[in-house]
Amino acid sequence: MNPELKKFDDAVATLTAAGQPFELDTAEIGGVSFLTYASMPANLGQYFGLMQRHADKDFAVYLQERYTFGETYQHSAELAAALVERFGVGKGDRVAILSRNNPQWMMAFIAAIGMGAVAVPMNSWWTTEELDYGFKDSGAKVVFADRPRAELLAPIAAKHGLQVIAIDDCSGLAVASTPLADLLRDFTGAAMPEVQMQPDDHATIMYTSGSTGHPKGALSSHRGILSALYSWMLMGVATKMAAADIPQKEQFPPAGLLTIPLFHCTGSHSAFLLSLVAGRKLVIMHKWDAQEALRLIELERITWFNGVPTMSAELQAAAQTSDRDISSLTDIMAGGAARPPDQVGKISGTFKKSNPGIGYGLTETNALGAVNAGAFYVANPHSTGRVVPAVTQFRIEGEDGQEMATGERGELCIKSPANVLGYWNKPEATAEAFVDGWFHTGDVGYVDKDRFIYIVDRIKEIIIREGENISCLEVEAAIYNHPAVFEAAVFGLPDERLGEIVGAAIVLKEGAEMTTDDLRDYLAQ
Asked: What is the dihedral of CA 27, 28, 34, 39, to 10 degrees?
């Protein structure tokens, strides 16, 4: 084994031993035994209380707004009290959040879960028709919404009996609402309601797109989310311990740039929730713009960046011609899609003080899975990394359900206490995807001798053309190599003679030109 990998594994073993900060234990969830962390809080309400450790430090920065950890927690407590006393929300009730990223989104999330309700972050890009399904499925009766989304609720609010809490100015709309600012005024100084919450009580419903039909609501427990957070914390501490003999870079206070929607687990968990215990300031972008990102990195001394690969590519391109001081930036992570391998080298070349990284996880795993970062990522840019320790197991499963040998391809399956409890209101889909504690991801991959994981395809996105399997990922990778291509997605289209043919949706770079014949000629080379 690589000596540096052994150092990391040894550090994990030390940190998870009896009496250590990440001591391991076992717990039974749904009749299946899982590893878990002995010192983990029993619920997210207790976890939110850890914000008081950094009470006077800046936490949420958005446009002209700036809130400390203490202010954010206090406002969340006030909103929680309002949910109970003004809106009659009780333990287990669903509370929706429908807004663009802002500090009030995070306050609403803490408030709902903190008083025992189930937070239901909804996709802020959904149409009224999609929202109609979301409220019917979730049963949420109270929703925090900003003006553009509140406007979409007007045709369906009465149908679902919705009570709207307006995050910003929603006056003049055809839907009644209560201003969030009024609730903060009316409940000033209120304490977080005291509610008994168990580790496996329901905490969130996060909607995930399916290959067919409506989105599925992934139902998570408090334990599920906390298991993901503590696993990332363990990985961070173990990484520092393993690198103790390496000269450290100049240290800046932890500060992250939030570019990912909070209704996705990558945004809500690895960016937002992990910051609460780490004391990490979060600077929220109003909308993505690479030049604005560089300005904020310099102004707020950002140390951590996470976005889809397209964002880090644009950031790298913009940084090449910028004179901004971005020396504080030490981590450039990506998730949500595979990062083209050549981009890894460009990032490490442009951001010489930074570690590029990629994360793999799904809504069904609370975003926990694998991570590849730093020198290991530069050396293995095609890999999504190794499993995040220490309570998560990966295996590659063949069609017969047996584990495949090293280097052999099969379906990637994940067993972890971070896995969600199942799909809300969908027992058949739950039974199909979750078997004996193992979540079947639908991704095809393999592991190498050092347990690095490689994702090579998606089971439901293999195109079968005249009996021949065609990998969507391989075709996408080839298209991405064309200099005019900005984004590409490959999929199968029905064909009467061949069964399926290859289809692609492509976005060109600004100012670029390319015809379909140009692309066909390029791919034929």
From this structure: -20
**Single-letter amino acid, residue 289:** D
Domain boundaries, the chain: 64-197, 468-524
Q: Which CATH architecture has domain 64-197?
A: 3-Layer(aba) Sandwich (3.40)
SS3 188: coil
Q: Are 161 and 141 in contact (CB under 8 A)?
A: yes
Closest residue by Cα to residue 488 from 500, 471, 469, 503: 503
| Arithmetic mean of pLDDT over the chain | 93
Answer whether 64-197 and 468-524 agree in fold. no
At residue 250, what is the residue type?
A: E
Tell me whether residue 18 is exposed, middle or buried, using C-beta atoms within 10 angstroms of its C-beta: 0 to 12, 13 to 18, 19 or more.
Answer: exposed
Q: Angle, nearest 10°, between helix axes 309-320 and 290-300?
A: 80
Q: Could you say which of 3.90.1300.10, 3.40.50.720, 3.30.300.30, 3.40.50.300 is the CATH number of the domain covering 468-524?
A: 3.30.300.30
* Average pLDDT of span 492-513: 84
Can you name the residues that pair with 94 across neighbouring β-strands? 118
How would you write 228-297 as a 3-class SS string? HHHHHHHHHHHHHHHCCCCCCCCCCCCEEEECCCCCCHHHHHHHHHHHHHHCCEEEECCCCCHHHHHHHH
What is the total residue count of the chain?
525
Token pair 């490689």: residue: 454
Tell me the C-alpha distance between 97 and 122, whole Å. Answer: 6
Q: How many CB atoms lie within 10 A of CB 268?
A: 26
Residue 395 to residue 166: CA distance in whole angstroms: 45
309 backbone dihedrals φ, ψ, rounded to 5°: -55, -35
- What is the C-alpha to C-alpha distance for residues 157 and 395, in angstroms, rounded to an integer? 45
CA distances from 153 to 93, 170, 173 (A): 20, 12, 10
Torsion of CA 426, 431, 434, 440, to 10 degrees: -90
Instruction: Dump the DSSP string for 22-79.
Output: T-EEEEEETTEEEEEETTS-SSHHHHHGGGGGGTTSEEEEETTEEEEHHHHHHHHHHH
- Predicted confidence band at 120 (pLDDT cuts at 50, 70, 90)? very high
Prediction pTM value: 0.89
- Return the closest-CA partner of residue 120 out of 211, 232, 208: 208
Distance CA 32, CA 43 (A): 20
466, pLDDT greater than 70: no
Q: Are 380 and 372 in contact (CB under 8 A)?
A: yes
* Cα–Cα distance, 525 to 516 (Å, whole number): 15
- Return the number of other C-beta atoms located less than 10 Å from residue 355's C-beta: 20
